[in-house]
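HUMAN:
Just now I want nothing more than another pair of eyes on a protein record. I would be glad if you read both lines and explained how they fit together. I have put the entry right below:
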Amino acid sequence: MRRIFLIGFVSMLALAACQSSTDETQQAKDNASKNTAVTKKENRSEEDSKQDQENPDEDQDQTSKENESNEEISENNESEQNEDSDSEEQSTNQEDSNQEESSESSAKVVDNPTSIEVVVNKQRKLPDGYTPPDLTVPQVPFYFEDFHQKKQMREVAASALEELFEGAEQAGIDLVAASGYRAYERQEAIFASNVEKHGEEHARQFSAVPGHSEHQTGLAMDVTVAKLSFKLSQDLGDMKEGEWLAENAHNYGFVIRYPEGKTDITGYEYEPWHLRYVGKDVATKVYNQDATLEEFYNLVP
């Protein structure tokens, strides 16, 4: 009996130990499962963090792109408004440019190109291939030494320019010659350069279309002073040299061809440096009348 009891007790202990082992095994499995889940979660967190580092401020970039898009839209709207407000002015400028082109394309070819009184402007042009006779270099100071085509003038104009420079020197005025005769091809290159730099509308205000330039007549000379670094500037008109020219050029047969306030008539902006030889008689009459050649010869466009 006692033996039977011991056997039963031992069996109960063995069963309890087995159950305990099973519970521990299950718990170990559960813990392992939890650790695995935690590890995966941590791994996912690390991967997400790595991705965030590889693509920083993704949301901010997206926001920035949206802002840029909005700014572009705003700029486009503003541009459209500006275009609307400027359309009338642009249309007017385009019409003026078109009128000038039309006028030049239908310009009258002058029949007296060798005359010292010839009028060349946007409505009147020289014959194709015209080269003035008796070109020579006046004995006056130039801002450059080597020979160049633009040093030349027709003999009658060159002699008058020498007298003008002598008179200026006696009055304490130091003038320097800059640019005289220009062949058609030279004027063509100058006009194209001005268009490229400043646009055609601006170029037409200061530069003649080839065939319409007074320089091609051989009767014009641009002058300047050292104080302007030998540049052609409207500032010359406010200097003593420019004032002397305006008051005395006619005594030597020259006129200030493009005077101030006459742009609507001449087609060009004020050029106090541009001297045109027309002879003492005509120059004096033009000076006394405060006129342009267009007004004097009744050729106002």
About this structure: The longest helix spans residues 2-54.
